[in-house]
């Protein structure tokens, strides 16, 4: 299989085979294109004046800088002979239908897979009259399924509508959960709180018992970034989980059962063999007994090593699809 998130020779080989199929299409043919997150790396064909090594270097620099996927894929399109609508142009005048699984904010089809069947240049717009793009699954789809399952387990579920982005260690999802659980915003939720958090506050779920007596589950989703500062190992989900674990120290005085999990839906978070990490109200104590300082591991971007030593990584293997990341915050009492 080709490489992700940095392309390799197999990525180029895959792109050449796909492009050859498109170029053989005739006017009365129908080309069905299946696109999902990761396609930008798995299908790579540098333009004439760009080498694979240059694309690899640029991709690595963008990823290490913590650049959002929109910017990463904008650069990829500019350096590609197949992205930015060029796959559809190769098939012209055939009919093209793209079935798309979204891994980006607002399901922007020009960003998903760097938009191989989406017009990028208005001067070519007439050649896209026979092209249609359909998003059939997204992060919202996964969140809805997760919420439905948690409800069968007896949880009262609240889902953040905002798509998480920005720096992984600074994401507010778990911070909002801690604020609600510790009654810090029980009577006056700040405007910066997420929609689900404000709803919890309005319903009185900032109290220890909750308004329904049911355990609480807060769900979120998105795709954050990591600015690499150290030489450790980890991905955005591991880093977000480690930051959340440090933040959860605020809940110790409540004597409540809580748990958190931050998982990549493709089963692999960054350069690791794990989808992400999980923890509960006993994890900080366990780490302390093992001599593990979470702040030191966060400082060196070594979140994977921290959770691996604790046995708290989620090794589900490749799921063969990608609808961004899922975040879980659970509280039983």
What does this structure look like?
With 333 residues, this protein is of the alpha/beta class. It has two domains: 9-137, 3-Layer(aba) Sandwich (Rossmann fold), CATH 3.40.50; 140-331, glycerate kinase, domain 1. It contains twelve helices and eight strands. The protein has helices at 9-24, 39-42, 52-64, 69-78, 86-91, 139-152, 173-181, 195-202, 236-247, 283-289, 294-299, 303-310, and strands at residues 30-35, 95-101, 131-137, 156-164, 216-222, 258-264, 276-280, 325-331. It has a five-stranded mixed β-sheet, sandwiched between helices. Strands 1-2-3 form a three-stranded parallel β-sheet. The model is unreliable at 184-193 and 200-211 (pLDDT under 50).
Determine and state the CATH class of the largest domain. Answer: Alpha Beta
Q: C-alpha Rg, in Å? A: 22 Å
Measured between the Cα atoms of the first and last residue, the distance is 45 Å
Uncertain segments of ≥5 residues (pLDDT<50)? 184-193, 200-211
Order of helices and strands: HEHHHHEEHEHHEHEEHHHE
Percentage beta strand: 15-25%
Topology:
Layout: H1 9-24, E1 30-35, H2 39-42, H3 52-64, H4 69-78, H5 86-91, E2 95-101, E3 131-137, H6 139-152, E4 156-164, H7 173-181, H8 195-202, E5 216-222, H9 236-247, E6 258-264, E7 276-280, H10 283-289, H11 294-299, H12 303-310, E8 325-331
Parallel strand pairs: 1-2, 2-3, 4-5
Antiparallel strand pairs: 5-8, 6-7, 6-8
Helix pairs in contact: 3-4, 9-12
Task: Write a brief structural summary.
By secondary structure, the chain is of the alpha/beta class.
């Amino acid at each position: 299989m080709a490489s992700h998130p940095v392309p390799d020779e197999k990525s180029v080989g895959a792109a050449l085979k796909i492009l050859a199929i498109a170029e053989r299409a005739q006017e009365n043919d129908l080309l069905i294109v299946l696109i999902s997150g990761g396609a930008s790396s798995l299908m790579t064909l540098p333009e004439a004046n760009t080498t694979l090594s240059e694309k690899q270097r640029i991709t690595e620099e963008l990823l290490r800088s913590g650049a959002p996927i929109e910017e990463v894929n904008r650069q990829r399109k500019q350096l590609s002979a197949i992205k930015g609508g060029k796959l559809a142009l190769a098939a012209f005048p055939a009919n093209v239908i793209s079935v798309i699984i979204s891994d980006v904010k607002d399901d922007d089809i020009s960003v998903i897979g760097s938009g191989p069947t989406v017009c990028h240049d208005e001067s070519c717009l007439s050649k896209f009259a026979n092209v249609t793009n359909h998003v059939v699954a997204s992060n919202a789809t996964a969140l809805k399924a997760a919420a439905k399952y948690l409800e069968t387990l007896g949880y009262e579920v609240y889902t953040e509508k905002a798509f998480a982005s920005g720096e992984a260690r600074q994401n507010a999802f778990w911070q909002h959960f801690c604020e609600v659980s510790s009654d810090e915003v029980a009577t006056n939720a700040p405007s910066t709180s997420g929609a689900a958090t404000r709803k919890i506050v309005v319903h009185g779920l900032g109290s220890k018992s909750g308004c329904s007596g049911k355990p609480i589950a807060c769900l979120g989703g998105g795709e954050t970034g990591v600015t690499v500062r150290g030489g450790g190992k980890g991905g955005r989900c591991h880093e977000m989980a480690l930051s959340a674990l440090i933040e959860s120290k605020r809940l110790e005085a409540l004597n409540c059962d809580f748990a958190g999990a931050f998982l990549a839906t493709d089963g692999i978070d960054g350069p690791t063999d794990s989808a992400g990490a999980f923890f509960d109200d006993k994890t900080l104590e366990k780490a302390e007994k093992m001599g593990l300082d979470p702040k030191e591991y966060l400082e060196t971007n070594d979140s994977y090593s921290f959770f691996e030593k604790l046995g708290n990584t989620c090794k589900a293997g490749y799921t063969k699809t990608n609808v961004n990341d899922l975040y879980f915050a659970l509280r039983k009492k």
